[in-house]
Specification:
251 residues, alpha/beta, Elongation Factor Tu (Ef-tu), domain 3, Rossmann fold, six-stranded antiparallel β-barrel, five-stranded parallel β-sheet, binds flavin-adenine dinucleotide
Length: 251
């Protein structure tokens, strides 16, 4: 009798499991299943260790542990290609990293509408973060004693990465377009070691840039919105700057 009851329960449980499995299967389209399979093959997982939202409009710092990543060979800036929605990927610069613990930080400007921005707003501590890989870019910061960084806030992580790559003995200056007052306060308070002047308008950014004097000792790094970067480069040359410029347009 006892056995019959147990058998009855387990048959019911098995039926329930089959029902829920077929329900899940039916509620996913063939396309969704195919996308899931493809993504599962091409992505790796990092683990979210912390998320810090800046006060004011949307800007996030995301600390990750990436067991499959090798940060030890970084010679230039690198970005992580993150899966932000089904078959949609966006690049985010690795702004601080530690090769031994395989940890790093991303900084994401999410004050606009877009798949990357929408995704960044809902990244949670302890969740997994799928990414396709890490790609590197060469930037010869180590070869120059004086470095100047100019760009918008989406490039803050890029400038922090350049500072880490350059080493401690460099003279750094420049400006960053940061229109949110609360962000400027937060930046001054939490990043005193990155000596960039936050400015409220793009005009201020151009004014500061054109004050630069030409010098073979200096490298100017421009990053952020692609049109802004192209305009900054043009203004710098127009103002007579003949030194080295490294430019990277993001979006
Ligand atoms: C090598 C590389 C490194 C990058 N590193 C970073 C990084 O460290 N941090 C970071 O935030 N982004 C970085 N980006 C940009 C990032 O990959 C996305 O392009 C960006 O987040 C926009 O994606 P989205 O899906 O939110 O918006 P999209 O769908 O691409 O764009 C939607 C709209 O929003 C506008 N838009 C996009 N970004 C911004 C913005 N920041 N401010 C205002 N309007 C915007 C677009 O012009 C468009 O009109 C990097 C890009 C590259 C190529």
């Amino acid at each position: 009798m006892q056995l019959t009851v147990v058998n009855f329960i387990s048959v019911k449980q098995i039926n329930l499991k089959c029902f829920s499995a077929s329900f899940v299967f039916k509620s996913m389209s063939i396309k969704e299943l195919a996308i899931g399979l493809i993504e599962g093959r091409i992505t790796k997982s990092a683990w979210v260790r912390a998320v810090r939202a800046w006060p004011g409009s949307d800007f996030y710092e995301i600390d990750l542990e990436a067991p499959d990543a090798d940060f030890s060979a970084f010679k230039g800036t690198a970005h992580m290609k993150c899966r932000v929605a089904p078959l949609i990927f966006r690049d985010y610069t690795i702004c601080r990293w530690d090769a031994a613990s395989k940890t790093c930080t991303l900084m994401i400007d999410a004050g606009h509408q877009g798949p990357g921005s929408n995704w960044a707003k809902q990244v949670q501590k302890a969740g997994s973060l799928p990414y396709v890989g890490i790609e590197a870019h060469r930037c010869p910061v180590a070869a120059y004693p004086d470095l100047f960084f100019f760009g918008d806030q989406s490039a803050l992580g890029h400038f922090l990465a350049l500072q880490q790559l350059a080493g401690a003995d460099k003279q750094i200056g420049g400006a960053i377009f940061m229109p949110d007052h609360a962000h400027q306060d937060h930046f001054r308070q939490h990043y005193p070691a990155l000596p960039l002047t936050p400015v409220y308008t793009k005009d201020n950014l151009f004014q500061r840039l054109t004050l630069l004097k030409s010098s073979g000792q200096a490298l100017v790094c421009l990053a952020g919105n692609s049109r802004l970067v192209a305009d900054l480069r043009r203004s710098l040359r127009k103002a007579g700057f003949a030194g080295q410029i490294h430019a990277q347009g993001f979006w």
